[in-house]
Amino acid sequence: MAENSRVGNDPSDELGLPGVDTTKPSVARVYDMMLGGKDHYEVDREFYRRTMEIEPNAPLLAQALRRWLIRVVRYLTTTAKIDQFLDCGSGLPTAENTHQVAQRVNPEATVVYVDKDPMVIAHGRALLEENDHTHVVAADLRYPDDLFAHPVVSRSLDFDRPIALMQCATIHHVEDDENPRELMARYIELLPAGSYVLLSHFCDPDDGSEVSTLAKAMEANLRSAIGRGRCRTPAEIESYLTGLEILDPGLVPVNEWWPEGPRLAPALPIDFIGWGAVGRKP
């Protein structure tokens, strides 16, 4: 493992993190709240209230992103026969996580969750203690070489066979000066041939539209409360998948990626904030 490794083994000291910080909102806890979870603090509720003032339909975005994840994992497990998943920035164990979807189809499917939030790590390990095919790793997704060298990752996943790498609602928290394009290129380089990459990202069409205005307001709210977060253009997001064969229908709003039925209500601006795509490494 590299000398500047950012990973560890015990949730109390991994990454040099202290205990759960209740003075700042957590992306994982707020996302969990929007999905109906109960693991949050007043600082998270305050951020949630501010978000709802900007966009009362904000929970619809979290729900759409989760439904997209479920559809993609189901497709990869059933049709592409993928049985290994590396879920980065996995968040709190809210209903219908990756392992539940994949292992419903294939009980032998292996899932490794990656996060650096101490609450996520503690809850995930407690929930999955008796699941031999699912593991939780404390690591910073901004260091792919360290992550792939982590003993739990290298022991649990077979890098001679295809893996599904999941970057679902994570890369928009990587700042421009941290070079998300280079980061994703390194992930793709490390994956074995035949692997799949799942990417969902907050989008700003930057075209003066109502959607763009909303995206800019949501980005400002994220940066004010959490200190990071970028809504990027479709072209920027697509560049993070360079070198992959993009599955139909390409990079689209997540509600438009193989929807399970017809749209029953008019589209709202919030429906065009979360975009997603799936690519296969040749």
TrEMBL record:
Pfam families: Methyltransf_19. This is O-Methyltransferase involved in polyketide biosynthesis. InterPro entries: SAM-dependent_MTases_sf, SAM_dep_MeTrfase_SAV2177_type. Residues 1-21 are annotated as: Disordered. It comes from Kibdelosporangium persicum. It comes from the Bacteria. Coiled coil: none annotated.
